[in-house]
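go over my protein:
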Amino acid sequence: MLCRIVDDTYAFDYPAVYQIDHETIGAIVCFTATYAGQAVTGEIVEVSGMLEEAELGVRHIVVGSSREAHGEHIRVVDA
């Protein structure tokens, strides 16, 4: 999935959180330090991870859900 980072305020927190501009998903959440600070506000990223939906319908993508996190990534594709 491609999306634009709109807020990187919590990119170095635990978990790292990137607010994104996407129709149905509000954020990328990262539980491993590998993805902390990976992108900054304004960049377009390709993200692959596990889709998670909370009780109230809030959706986010989890990247780094396990130690190996096979198939999960954040890649900057355009600044």
In short: The mean pLDDT is 93. Residues 30 and 69 are 11 Å apart (CA to CA). The beta strands are 2-10, 16-21, 27-30, 44-48, 50-53, 59-63, 73-78.
